[in-house]
Amino acid sequence: MPEGTSASVPDRRAGGDRPSVGLVLVSHSAAVASAVAELARGLAGGGPTAPVAAAGGDPGGGLGTSAELIADAARAVDRGAGVALLVDLGSAVLTVKALLAEDGELPEGARLVDAPFLEGAVAAFVTASAGGDLDAVAAAASEAYEYRKE
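Above: the chain's sequence. Below: its structure in token form.
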């Protein structure tokens, strides 16, 4: 897989053949995207997990976003039930929107999810790992805006 993109987690769901939602975590930093993916996996509590890939930084390993890395990551996690893309900041949003506007750049059913990056990624990953469909995964991630820390 290209530099800046981490390998996807194998789809180890019970029941095996049912399609699952894949997740792509897009950050300006490869380290941040990978760390959030690792945290989501760790907090999922073991057992079957949804496929997730980190697409962070530019192809040379610096800060930025890369349409190529994002598209490669989305194809890597596509299991036929859609791909949820969660992003950190401005140009990551614009890059994903541009990819969605171009036919064939992302797998069918790919969706930009409006959610806080860290909390949304964890909620999306847990929901996808439990077998939730793309709408449920997107809703769980978006609901993370409501998490209170007081």
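The longest helix spans residues 30-43.
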